[in-house]
Structure formats: C-alpha cells, structure tokens
Amino acid sequence: MLWLDLGNTRLKYWLTDDIGQIVAHDAKQHLQSPAELLMGLTDRFERYAPDFIGISSVLGAAINTRVAETLSRLDIPFEFVHVDANHALLSSRYDANQLGVDRWLQMLGAVDKKKRQCVIGCGTAVTIDLIDHAEHLGGYIFPNIYLQREALFSGTKQISISNGTFDSIDQGIHTQDAVHRGILLSIVGAVNEIHRRHPNFELIMTGGDASIIAQHISRPVHLRDNLLLGGLARYFEHRRQPVDE
Ligand SMILES: Nc1ncnc2c1ncn2[C@@H]1O[C@H](COP(=O)(O)OP(=O)(O)OP(=O)(O)O)[C@@H](O)[C@H]1O
Ligand SMILES: CC(C)(CO)[C@@H](O)C(=O)NCCC(=O)O
Ligand SMILES: [K+]
Questions:
Q1: What is the mean pLDDT of the chain?
Q2: Known binding residues for substrate
Q3: Between 121 and which of 21, 127, 186, 210 could a Cys-Cys bridge form, CB atoms 3.0 to 4.6 Å apart?
Q4: Angle CA(121)–CA(124)–CA(130) in degrees, nearest 5?
Q5: Whose CA is nearest to atom 5 of ligand 2?
Q6: Is 227 helix (H, G, I), strand (E, B) or coil?
Q7: Is 102 labeled as catalytic in the residue annotation?
Q8: Paired sense of beta strands 53-57 and 78-80, if any
Q9: How confident is the model at residue 243 (pLDDT cuts 50, 70, 90)?
C-alpha cells in the first residue's frame, strides 16, 4: 500500500508491505505545488506497484483535484480520507466539515476506547485534541514555534530574530533568548495547563517538533512517530473488514 500525507508544508509518503511494515518513506517540501511534486514521484510510485493509495490532505479542494488528476495516470485505485464524526472507532463533537483530516487521522491512530487521551500534533501548526473513551471532545490550534517567530519578526520593529534554537523555557536576558524561550513556553505552558485541567488524560505527542516540546513537559509524554500513518492504515483496514467494537 502507498500512503500519502499532503500537509501544509510537506508531502510525506510511506510504502508498506502486506504485514504493514514500512519498506520506503520520504518527506519533501512542496512549496505550494504538491501536484507538480507528485508528478515527479510517479515513476517511483509506479515501480513500487502498490495495489492501493490512501491519502490525507489538508490542502483544499482545488489542490486535491490536481493531485487526483496526477494520480489517475498511475492506474492504481486511490482515495482521499474524509473525516467521519460518527466513525465506529472514534466519534467527534467537532464540526466535521472543519476538522483537519490530519488531526482526525492522528487521533484515529492513537485512539483507545479504554482511555482518556490528549493527542498533540507538532507540525506546521501545533494541535491539541482531547479524547474521552473514543469521543473527541474538541481541541486547540496554535502556530508552531517557527510561525510564532515569523509573526514577531514581521510584526515588530526591534525584533529581527530569524534563527536560533528553542532549547529552554527559563527567562531570557537577551532578545534572542527572550523570543525563543517565550515562544517555547507558550506551547509548553499550554500543554502543562491542559494536563492540569485534564489530569487523567494520557499525553501523546507526534510530529517533527514533538521532542523539542516534550522535554519541557512536567508529565510523562508518549512520543509516537507516524501516528497519521497509523490512522490511515486503521481507516482503510476498518473499512475492509468492519469489526463490531
Ligand atoms: N527534515 C525536516 N524537514 C523539515 N522539518 C523538519 C525536518 N525534521 C524535523 N523537522 C521539524 O518538523 C517540524 C514540522 O513537523 P512535521 O514534519 O510533523 O510537519 P510538516 O510536514 O512540516 O507540516 P505539515 O504536516 O503540516 O505539512 C518543523 O517545524 C521542523 O522543526
Ligand atoms: C490545524 C491544521 C493546520 C494542522 O495541520 C490542519 O488540521 C487544518 O488545516 N485544519 C483545519 C481547521 C481545523 O482543524 O479546525
Ligand atoms: K490558510
């Protein structure tokens, strides 16, 4: 199977074998032209000869249409996932027309009907979603640390920080430190506050910046790579052989 994640910044793909093991994967910046990027990848995908392509896209109808046109040339069945607020494995109180399918799939990848869970996605946006025994209660969306830094850079005269590392939440005594530490604290502080408000929810973190953030959380955090991939696989697996759960 071939799995595609068309995110805000990057296109990711995974090829899995019959038992769900990843045999190839990559992530590429798509710079607003994912259909063109995909076009350049079709040779590679053809060589893999997957029997199905499952897709998560948060790029909107116009781009999805162009992606579908590109994939049609491959002669391999493909399907975009749509949020299902009444899914047997995960229901949701969120407006299903608005909920990003990447958030939903990350939750689907993590959901455990016996638990209370807080799924934190650390990609282009940071998302925090609460799930109570397989019911999505709602969540929060933040700009990630780099977007926050860009916002400060472009909205102020005296802050011209465009590089540096996010490695501490102690108070800074230079602009550079104050900016990086303030931004990191905004996310770390939010997660700690979520934990204070929902102490029985297990913290689960995924995405490229998960480890940068997790180090500063005062509670145990389960770092989960590829939650979205897990959600994609679960979604199509469940559809093939629906189980009564
Ligand atoms: N090779 C890499 N390229 C880009 N970002 C990376 C890389 N490795 C780690 N990161 C970190 O991952 C973060 C992005 O996380 P993630 O990969 O989950 O999302 P994304 O693919 O960039 O965003 P989206 O899924 O919304 O397109 C970046 O802010 C960056 O700090
Ligand atoms: C929040 C992001 C940007 C996270 O990638 C994505 O899931 C998205 O565009 N969502 C739409 C808005 C929403 O989820 O309510
Ligand atoms: K937008």
A1: 96
A2: 94, 100-103, 175
A3: 127
A4: 25
A5: 125
A6: helix
A7: yes
A8: parallel
A9: low
Write out the E strands in 30-166.
53-57, 78-80, 91-92, 116-122, 125-132, 135-143
pTM: predicted TM-score of the whole model, two decimal places: 0.96
Which tokens in the block code for residue 61?
């109808």
Q: Does the pLDDT value for residue 33 go beyond 60?
A: yes
Q: Up-side HSE of residue 94: CA atoms within 13 Å toward CB?
A: 26
Ligand 1 site residues (CB inside 6 A) read 7-10, 123-124, 144, 146, 207-209
Ligand nearest to the CA of 143: 2
Average pLDDT on 172-184 reads: 97
pLDDT of residue 242: 62
Contact in structure between 133 and 116 (CB atoms under 8 Å)? yes
Distance 160 CA to ligand 3 centre (A): 24
Active-site choice (43, 51, 84, 102): 102
Measured distance CA(68)–CA(33) in Å, rounded: 13
pLDDT for the residue 245:
52
Compute the chain's Rg from CA coordinates. Answer: 19
ipTM of the shown complex: 0.95
Q: Which residue's alpha carbon is nearest to atom 4 within ligand 2?
A: 125
Contacts 24+ apart (CB under 8 A), 15-18: 15/48, 15/50, 16/233
How would you classify residue 23: left for phi > 0, otherwise alpha for psi between -120 and 50, otherwise beta? alpha
Q: What is the mean pLDDT of residues 90-106?
A: 98
